[in-house]
Amino acid sequence: xxxxxxEKIYDPTQVEERWYRFWTEKGYFHAxxxxxGAPYSIVIPPPNITGSLHLGHALNNTLQDILIRWRxxxxxxxxxxxxxxxxxxxxxxxxxxxxxxEGTSREVLGRxxxxxxxxxxxxxxxxxxxxxxxxxxxSCDWDRLRFTMxxxxxxxxxxxFVRLHEDGLIYRGERLINWCPRCLTALSxxxxxxxxxxxxLYHIExxxxxxxxxxxxxxxxxxxxxxxxxxxxVHPEDPRYNHLIGKKVRLPLTSRDIPIIGDPILVDxxxxxxxxxxxxxxDFNDFEAGERHNLPRxxxxxxxxxxxxxxxxxxxxxxxxxxxLKPVHQARALMVDALRERGFLAKVExxxxxxxxxYRCKTxxxxxxxxxxxxxxxxxxxxxxxxxxxxxxxLIPEGWVNNYLGWMRxxxxxxxxxxxWWGHQIPAWxxxxxxxxxxxxxxxxxxxxxxDAKPVVARTAPAHCPDCSxxxxxxxxxxxxxxxxxxxxxxxxxxxxxxxxxxxTYYPTSTLVTGLDILFFWVARMIMMxxxxxxxxxxxxxxxxxxxRDAEGQKMxxxxxxxxxxxxxxxxxxxxxxxxxxxxxxxxxxxxxxAEERIEGYRNFANKIWNAARFILMNLDGPREAAPPKxxxxxxxxxxxxLNRTIRDVNASLEAYRFDQASSQIYHFIWHEYCDWYLxxxxxxxxxxxxxxxxxxxxxxxxxxxxxxxxLHPVMPFITEEIWQTLPHEGDSLVIQRYPVPIPEWNAKDxxxxxxxxEQFVTTVRTGRAQLNYQPGKVLALxxxxxxxxxxxxxxxxxxxxxxxxxxxxxxxxxxxxPTDKVLRLPVEGMTVGLVVEGEVDLEKVLSRLQKQSExxxxxxxxxxxxxxxxxFTSKAPAEVIREHGDRLRILQQxxxxxxxxxxxxxxxxxxxxx
Length: 915
Known about the structure:
Elements: H1 16-26, E1 39-43, H2 55-73, E2 77-81, E3 83-84, H3 88-101, H4 106-109, H5 111-125, H6 128-136, E4 146-147, H7 151-166, E5 170-180, E6 185-187, E7 192-207, E8 215-220, E9 231-234, E10 248-250, E11 257-262, E12 275-278, H8 284-293, H9 309-314, H10 328-341, E13 345-358, E14 366-375, H11 378-389, E15 394-396, H12 401-409, E16 414-415, E17 417-418, E18 428-431, E19 439-443, E20 446-449, E21 455-457, E22 473-475, E23 479-480, H13 482-486, H14 489-492, H15 501-506, E24 509-515, H16 519-534, E25 539-545, E26 548-550, H17 566-573, H18 575-584, E27 592-594, H19 596-618, H20 634-655, H21 659-682, H22 692-712, H23 717-724, H24 749-771, E28 780-786, H25 789-797, H26 799-806, E29 808-813, E30 823-828, E31 831-836, H27 843-868, H28 871-876, H29 879-914
Parallel strand pairs: 1-2, 3-4, 9-11, 15-25, 24-25, 26-27, 28-29
Antiparallel strand pairs: 5-6, 5-14, 7-8, 7-13, 9-12, 10-11, 14-16, 17-23, 18-21, 18-22, 19-20, 28-31, 30-31
């Protein structure tokens, strides 16, 4: 029996923390390898330890929690692996800002003390987001919490690095890389965000060395880098210039002559002037051209994007320009002035350009020549491409497959070294004796290594040099890209490289839920690493959800003032309301346009469920009889059949990752069928407490509503647990109950067909009642006529229900026998419903209102028709959206016909009254 009654008003703050504590204390989220059931596992996309819960986290983790709770209730052996990411650059920046506020810096502390300071910060502040995830209801196995720099994962990182190096897939070399002058570290290609901006295109004249009056014109957006030019390229088949190949030009503002070369790859003779300057030290395409033609590289910028004295010297720049240590923007202005004054600047044009910025601090990124560590990526990418092509990994929605394959086929080597201190230090050491000229002491106990340095890569610090047997080593100061350790997450968290029981049980994982923004940062790299080191894919399904935007579709940002804090929302409306909102709006391929009104609406849905529970509990005082479904009342049989259909649909939707459909199906059933119809239908049953109908209806109420709590629990875990505990039930918690599956005995298609007739009649009465502005409780004289014998039989059989729901007395017949001048006739679906129009009805007001409603519906009909006839819309919109529009149009057209017909009848009645 139920343990207690519910409070009058649902207060989430009195429920959520209590039940989450209960669940965790009972160990319901903890996974064990020997638990029965097929394994189902998810690894959480580890949030940064610097992070605080935002709506993207809330969406991502709500969807994961729905899946894991659903599978747990299905009897699967579930594991949701939680953890956090050390977030190298972001975390280092946080602690460096603290040090700056204290009047010191990491350089003053030194590496060891600084790293300890970061660990201390993590211990104090790094777990905030985990508590926030618990507030969201995330049912992770918190006993297995991992961190990308814990000892086990650090061992996995070292093992992977060494094996890749042994296989020739990790190498060190001097290449052009993306460099952040503020973070002072290398960035991989996908850590650079490209932003369109308005710039200038400068046309500069390069005079021939042996004929200064003849000049080649080249165009550039960055005149300051021309000082590092080492050639000018033309197309070898371009008759304007091919006779110049082999000659030289004098580089303006320098005393250097550089060659004119032919390059059909770099030069498009149809674009621009047909002559292209080559700056191998400051442009990626130019770097490749330099490799092809064995050109020297001159780096004229230092690490802080200032003009470098050594580079300017190598470039033989006119010292009177006074460029040394000038930032890029100042150097550019000085260069343009000098070029103009000396007659080398032909013209300047406005020019749209793409500017690369650091994904962390938004500083403009510079191509920078530097020795770095790289992963040779093509051999790893090929198996990862095949895994998606042959279906071993499914990307959902499928529309992202082509994006993934296109990016993977054009993938570049991955720069994995970062010039920071917080992270996995690269397991490479340099023998001082063998690398005497290649090791540079930049500051006391701070070293850099030239590209000629010869590293010793090992799992642990080497005792002796393999070449000279010396024992004096310096460790490579760089750390690994944060995404390197994250790429190992699905198997490293399960104990790899050891063959643990967890790895054997839960790997490959079942589903990865992630945002589109890290498809290439993380997902692709996990696939590559998983295949390489386990021989198997890291997951079977990848569900890619959309971004959460504001109600207008704008990206949320503090600067726009449109950020919605999920913690505040949960406090105001309850966690279940936020979860349901996010699930209901998670349509494939469509960004979530989130308005607070939607969350408020689903808070109202929670209240609807709560009030239904209170009604049911108030009517359970009395005996119950568990009769077979076929022996129960019409209302009971109908609701069990509809619940059965909903159970089937919701399970199918969740299998297809259609969280939006599953939520909509549950919402529609609870609000519109269970509350609006069923609970109203059964109220007369309780007039006689001990009747057979009352006993069986109580049993049906318990069965159906308890089943509903289980059906809804993965989406709204808190309110469902609170209600379920008050209902008659078996077991200690809803978390470990079985998820509903269809029960064949509940199916009753014939009863559903009968209900459709009842619903049509009652809905039409309600429409007429609204048209005539009758009060909802007013008892009406009603008529019903249909020439369809089966329909008439159904109406007569269900007459008590019809009269109860219609609030009136109903006369039924095969033909219309009522006085037409006093009855509003509403024809619909083969029947006609009649409402007596009493003298108190102000026909003029009613007609005016109907006219306004008719005009509004006609406008909406025209809008939908135009949309459905628009090829641009129908060719791009998902099929379900088009179907929804079509259904809406048909309803509007039916309503419009009723309004028009009613208007004609009422005008006739007005005329009769006048006569």
